[in-house]
Amino acid sequence: KANRPNKVAIKQFKPQFEGERKSRFGISMSACREIAICRELNHVNVVFIKDVLFDDYLVNIVMDYAEYDLSTIIQYHKRNLSPLPELVIKSMLFQTLSGIEYLHSNGIMHRDIKPANLLIHKSGLLKIADLGLARRCDTNFLSLYSGDKVVVTLWYRSPELLLGTRHYTQSIDIWAIGCVFGELLTLRPMFAGEEIKMLPKKPIPFQKFQVLKVFQILGSPRLSNWPDLQFMPEYKYIKKIRQLASSFKTWFEKSSVQSELYFELLSQMLEYDSKKRVSAKDALLSPIFNDQPSPVS
Predict the structure, then answer these.
(1) Residue 14 half-sphere exposure, CB side, CA atoms within 13 Å?
(2) Which of 54, 66, 226, 265 could pair covalently with 119 via S-S, beta carbons 3.0-4.6 A apart?
(3) Mapping DSSP to helix (H, G, I), strand (E, B) and coil, where does residue 8 land?
């Protein structure tokens, strides 16, 4: 009996256009970046590019196929009012951290971790996908801010990004994973703030509603536990927001897993000060992973 060929996924990039006549002038920077970076990667929890095909003006990336993404799985359990089993939560988190640790150890930050970008195979194998915003951070050729002015989907954006920093580290990925972890535990986004739309030729707006969502759960940051707060470009705005006490413990009571170890790891990921935020490598050493969870279908 002949072996059936493995399914693949094809991600298509359409050409960019410029000028009044809408002349084609190439593919987007995000497409070039994703192809260049993914071609160098080889990890079980990071999507693998099998081939790149050119068809007229279209670029097609042939990659690993996955039946679901984490957002779909979370929504399914939310609709059915059924919490995710602890083994599944632990496996999803472990695999995400493993993939990110691999990226970070190779000098790459993802810059758009969210449930929709975490693909899940029916076997339970997770793969980090969509590296269109990924950047190398082991070189000093250009400032990270010189390219993409806004990175990370709003609900998963770290405090230093929300407060306008131009200098950030791989720890922005850890904050985003912390937000995903919280979502796995409650089936709801932790910080679902309303987005203030960016207008053409206008400065990047201060996302005050998103900042407020974070403060309402974690409490207002203080200079005593985040000294660099005073140097953030948008610090002047948060000084106008009244001080809020933390409700993090109360929020955690809604979690489907009532474990001090889970709360401790989540707290380390959602540390305001990026210098104190846990690394992916250290997060993988948490006692909750002592049994090194395998994929759960």
Answers:
(1) 3
(2) 66
(3) strand
In a domain, 48, yes or no: yes
98 domain-assigned: yes
Helices (H), 7-142: 29-38, 70-79, 86-105
CATH of the domain at 17: 3.30.200.20
In a domain, 244, yes or no: yes
Token readout for 13 is 């990039």
Per-10-residue mean pLDDT for the chain, 297 residues long? 68 64 62 82 91 78 89 97 96 98 96 97 94 78 52 93 93 98 98 90 88 97 95 91 95 96 98 98 96 78
Residues in the chain, how many?
Answer: 297
* C-alpha–C-alpha distance, residues 200 and 228, integer Å: 30
Max distance between CA atoms of the chain, in angstroms, equals: 71
**pLDDT tens digits for range 27-37:** 777 778 888 88
Catalogue the active-site residues.
112
Is 26 in a helix, a strand, or coil? strand
**Is 121 part of any domain?**
yes
Q: Is 60 exposed, middle or buried (0-12, 13-18, 19+ CB in 10 A)?
A: middle
Q: What is the pLDDT of residues 246-284, one digit of tens each?
A: 999 999 999 999 999 999 999 999 999 999 999 999 999
Q: What is the total count of domains within the chain?
A: 2
